[in-house]
Amino acid sequence: MAKQNFDVVVIGAGIHGAAVARQAVEAGKKVLILEQFDRPAKATSSRSSKLIHGGLRYLESFNFGLVRECLLDRRRLLQDYGDLVHMQKFYIPIYKDTSRTRLTIRAGLSLYGLLGGLDEYSRFSMVPQSEWANLDGLEQSDLLAVFQYWDAQTDDAKLTFRLLEEAVGMGATLLLNTRFSQCREQGEDLQVSFQRNDKTQAVTTRAVVNATGPWVNETLQKFKPAIASLPMELVQGAHLELPGSLEQGVYYLEAPQDRRAIFAMPWYDRILFGTTETLYQGDPNQVQPTPQEIDYLLTVYNYYFPDKPLGKGDIINAWAGLRVLPAGDGNPFKRSRDTILQSNRAKQPTVVSIYGGKLTSHYSTAKKVLKLLS
Q: Can you list the pairs that 75-82 forms with residues at least 24 positions away whose Cβ atoms lie under 8 Å?
């Protein structure tokens, strides 16, 4: 690698780093990807809720642009990666104590379908009461109605791997077990140094993309001259892998404790249940579900599926991923989910850092990054 010149160096081989690299190399750029771990998607990009969706609940905060963008990206993913992304039936049960009324849900699903382009997967329906018994043992006491709509599911790690395989196949260079050390301006170019195989190596590049997720501000500290970072918080989302199966699809539930959205999802031959939102201040490498999060999720699961109650001893696996959210007061659940792109300067930027980002909209995020650098 010594003395090689690149157009773009991407730091981080998660879903956003992979998407930026793929689009850049497809545009004819010479691309280098640096990944600190021994495999891509080892952190957040393999610990999501595995959903490709527009974000139905974002409509409540009037974030129509984000929902529209995600639904368009969902359509593109279904077309381009149909072997990895598939549509799934989603169910929203409405109980006597549910915080949102049937009218509210109906209006939200109508707008969701409109933003999705009114295609075949934009339609929703009411599940007849005669069919409620088929809904995988869902609690029926005080159940008033069940809505069914469509969204998609994927294996987030496999999708990341696919993008990287395509990028490398088109000429990108991917280095694993490689730690970014420093980036310095060198005339009109940038010199990027990194540690690999106990040796320090350096390359020159025209641009750098910081796609390191929860390490985004830590990575920025290694740039000379210094680049201003944004105030952010890490919020962990815990998931449980539970025994059993959900034959009908995904259930969009409301936690009785605090009315947060929780998903019960089929996941290979198991049930994936999550997620939580807990502020995290430790090492991103050490994130794990807390005992409180595990109790919280089991309580929600047993509330909605009481016929097959589960305890801690039944958990097959438990893990947590980290979201990057703007710093602020109040409930993280109500924070903005917009992706923020921070550049080193307003005109002709050479460094772009990605704050946040959604699995669904990785393509649109990468497109915006490359537009900034163009």
A: 75/116, 75/117, 75/119, 76/363, 77/52, 77/152, 77/154, 77/159, 77/360, 77/363, 78/152, 81/154, 81/159, 81/162
d(CA 160, CA 181): 24
The residue among 58 and 154 whose pLDDT is bigger is 154
Q: How far is CA 190 from the centre of its chain?
A: 30
Cβ count near 215 (within 10 Å): 21
pLDDT class for 334, splitting at 50, 70, 90? low
What tokens does 7 get?
A: 């157009």
Round to whole Å and give the CA distance between 71 and 263.
19
- Categorise residue 322: left if φ over 0, alpha if ψ from -120 to 50, beta otherwise: beta
Inter-residue long-range contacts of 129-132, CB under 8 Å, 24+ positions, other chains counted:
none
Are the CB atoms for 244 and 43 separated by under 8 Å? no
Average pLDDT score over the chain:
95
Report the percent of the chain where pLDDT is more than 90. 90
Q: Could you tell me if 265 and 273 are in contact, meaning their C-beta atoms sit under 8 angstroms apart?
A: yes
236, with CB counted inside 10 A (0-12, 13-18, 19+), is buried
C-alpha 360/C-alpha 363 separation (Å) is 8
Residue 58 CB coordination number (10 Å):
19
* Helices and strands, counts by H and E, the chain: 7, 19
Phi, psi of 58 (to 5 degrees): -65, -15
Alpha-carbon gap, residue 12 to 357, rounded angstroms:
14
C-beta separation of 20 from 166 below 8 A: no
Q: Which residues pair with 85 in a beta bridge?
A: 154
Terminal-residue alpha carbon distance, the chain: 25
Residue type, 218: E
Strands 199-210 and 189-196: antiparallel
